[in-house]
Amino acid sequence: MTSTPDYQSVIIRTERGLTIAGTRITLYDVMDYVTAQYPSKFIQGLFDLTEEQINTALTYIEAHRAEVEVEYQQVLQEAEELRQYYEEQNRERVARNTVKSIKPGTEAAWQKLRAAKTRRASKV
Fold first, then answer.
1. Helices 27-35 and 40-47, interaxial angle, to 10°?
2. How many angstroms separate the CA atoms of 30 and 61, rounded?
3. How far apart are the C-alpha atoms of 50 and 99, rounded to whole Å?
4. Smallest Cα–Cα separation from 76: which of 17, 4, 28, 19?
5. pLDDT digits (tens, 9 = 90+) for 1-23
6. What digits encode the pLDDT tens for the residues 17-45?
7. What are the residue ranges spanned by the domains of the chain?
């Protein structure tokens, strides 16, 4: 007789989506590493999960792959939209910071920094 996994005690739905109970780790966080084909032991160590937590999460993902994949793609799309939004919001600030003039008295330090960057880039 095989027992069915008890997902409800380990995988719960929160406002953040499907989450590993007792953590802030979503199945979408785990999916990043599953899709990149990282070993389960690596994922377990990365998120400091118990063996039961990682095994249940991976089993849940496999058993509900279509549902989890749809939600995962939605999470990725929302993350990309946020990244683009904040990139646009900060475009002016980044441009302003890159053209800031060098403060008087720091020219030698900046020259030394540029030389070090050039040497480092030539080693690659």
1. 140
2. 9
3. 49
4. 28
5. 344 456 667 899 999 999 999 99
6. 999 999 999 999 999 999 999 999 999 99
7. 7-92
- Tell me if 27 sits within 8 A of 61, measured CB to CB: yes
51: Cβ contacts below 8 Å, ≥ 6 apart: 44
As a residue count, the chain comes to 124
* 57 φψ region: left (φ > 0), alpha (ψ -120 to 50), beta (else): alpha
Question: 97 is written with which tokens?
Answer: 């910071």
Q: Indicate the fold that domain 7-92 takes in CATH.
A: Arc Repressor Mutant, subunit A (1.10.10)
List CB contacts of 31: < 8 A, sequence separation 6 or more. Answer: 61, 68, 69, 72
